[in-house]
Amino acid sequence: MRAPLRSDARDNRGRILEVARAAFAADGLDVPIREIARRAEVGVATVYRHFRTKEALLAEAFAEQLASCRVVVEEGLAADDPWRGFCLVIERLMEVHALDRGFARAFTSRLPDIAEFAADRDRTLRLLLRLVRRAKEAGALRDDFVVEDISLALMANEGIRADSPELRVAASRRFAALMIQSFRAEPVRAPLPPAVRLPLSRAELSRARSTGTRSAP
């Protein structure tokens, strides 16, 4: 049994994890340990004292997000209507991801194959496959839909740039609605959530003004 950590060691460990989550979510999984240590204001040796390898740090940094993914999928499976359950999962994944980039990394990245982490990831994937199968059996989800399409949507969702978290969530909801309509077996024209004004480059803005094109109000 591991001895309890001293309070300063606990603080260091917590800060390393917090910095690692933010760094991996924002900059990808190739951020070096040396950079994690610098941002956490600890030495490289301190990082390795708590996490023997970078893979171990990655696994623990994303464990919370992966658990959250599983809860979202479980809520979708609990819905009486398979299609509504599927839609709830897409909407919720997109919305949470708009606020936490690390959330999608748990779905879309090749994370370390550490036993406990891999088992949790496999459980989540099995639940997601059940959700997709139920929606297809109900005749609501298109036959050629594959689970990788969810990863594709999350990757695209990651490209949303907005001036505030609230606007990112609003834009993500509209994008989720567009995705859901494209996933449906028989597309139904339904109202979309309100459009969101997103930042444009000066060149794009200039072109839009010269042609009389307007962005979202």
Describe this structure in words.
This protein is mainly alpha-helical. Helix content is 69%, strand content 0%. The protein contains 10 helices and no strands. It is globular, with a radius of gyration of 20 Å. The termini are far apart. 28% of the residues are buried. The model has no long low-confidence stretch (mean pLDDT 84).
Helix and strand topology:
Elements: H1 7-27, H2 33-40, H3 44-50, H4 54-78, H5 82-99, H6 101-108, H7 115-137, H8 148-157, H9 165-183, H10 202-211
Describe this structure in a few short sentences.
With 217 residues, this protein is mainly α. It has helices at residues 7-27, 33-40, 44-50, 54-78, 82-99, 101-108, 115-137, 148-157, 165-183, 202-211. Helix 1 (7-27) crosses helix 2 and helix 4 (54-78) packs across helix 6 (101-108).
